[in-house]
Amino acid sequence: MFDIYTIIFLALAVFIFLRLRNVLGQRTGTERPPFDRHARNIPGVPDANVVPIPGKVIDQAPLAPTAEVTTPTDRWKDLAQPGTSLAQGLDAIASVDSSFDPKHFLSGGRSAYEMIVLAFANGDRRALRDLLSSEVYDSFDAVIKDREKHEQKTETRFVSIDKAELVGADMRDRMAQLTVRFVSQMISVTRDKAGTIVDGNPDKVADITDVWTFARDTTSRDPNWKLVGTGSAH
After folding, report:
1. Domain count for the chain
2. Is residue 4 over pLDDT 90?
């Protein structure tokens, strides 16, 4: 025969069981769906959980063409003519680098060009090391060492950067390369220890055309480009 305490405990046990079933057996609407890092995007359906990483696309299927997709004929408007090697190179880079924006690159390229020229003139190795490939840095450093050996100093001042245009684009394995023609005006002079001019003219504005190549590893999280080649044009 059950006493009053046994009946109370049984009633409590049934009550607790029913409450647990109600809570654990229902969804509240705030749960996140399970994340499958190997799942591919569904064409036409944006994935709000995907965060783009500059310079890298991980296991992403190409989206099906839609009316909003930029057509090949105007994709690189004002930068490259359709069907040219430059346009094809830009296409190749964009296909592996979802963050690639050539107009943004050119804007940064102007700043990098000025920074590199001035750092070279001032012998600022620290600034150059962050902006140049090891091979280009070594060649710049050799000239700086020669100036230091002869106790010479170079003074350079930009008057203007008149043009920065893409003239080449290429994918080489995982490395994206962009070649830019810079047209600028600057004043440059090199003096010896006594202040005597050994090169340049402090009163003359020179027209300069440089053709520089920048590169970036598209598999790297680092979005920065480095100077890997220099040349000049007349």
Report:
1. 1
2. no
